[in-house]
Amino acid sequence: MYFFICKGGGAIKNIKLVVGLMIVCLLSSCGTKIDKEVQEVIKEDCTVERLKKYENESIYRIYHVTDSENNKIIQLIEQNGFVDKIKMMVVIDCKEDEIEQIKILEHNESHDYGDLLTEEWFLERFKGKTATIPLRVVKMSAKEENQIVAITGATITSEAVAKGANLCMNNYQKIKGE
């Protein structure tokens, strides 16, 4: 360790000033605070860019996440459900042009049927759906690629999740078009 002995401690003050400025620069270069839910699905070495330009009243956060293997658009959206707002995260794989994941972040849907929207078996119905064709909710069985079978007794809740995914897919097409 080196100590600087100068009249009045000038060198030490300069070092403290430089170190302080370096810390401020480092912290400010970290950019926007990334939402906790997004941090859970990205790798540590990814580049994350917030796309504020495409955010709106419903889609309140959008991130473009890239690394050597991944190119994703992650959108956080709030959509009206049967009881209240449903907050969810929609992850679109830009390389495959498809939905990679939907995660329900928060909801107040009914505890009997509506609460099933968080179940993996329901959310898996969205995985792999192409991001170029709007999703439609059906009641019994899916006969076409873009159809999502509703949760029995929670059709409005199911439609809210599909509508949120469709809004994110439309937004993704805008982002992709630029």
From TrEMBL:
Superkingdom of this protein's organism: Bacteria
Residue ranges of domain FMN-binding in the record: 81-172
Pfam family, one: FMN_bind
Cellular component terms (Gene Ontology): plasma membrane
SMART domains: FMN_bind
InterPro entries: FMN-bd, Ion_transpt_RnfG/RsxG
GO MF entries: electron transfer activity; FMN binding
GO biological process, one term: electron transport chain
Keywords: Electron transport, Flavoprotein, FMN, Phosphoprotein, Transport
Name used for this protein in its record: Electron transport complex protein RnfG
Source organism per UniProt: Paramaledivibacter caminithermalis (strain DSM 15212 / CIP 107654 / DViRD3) (Clostridium caminithermale)
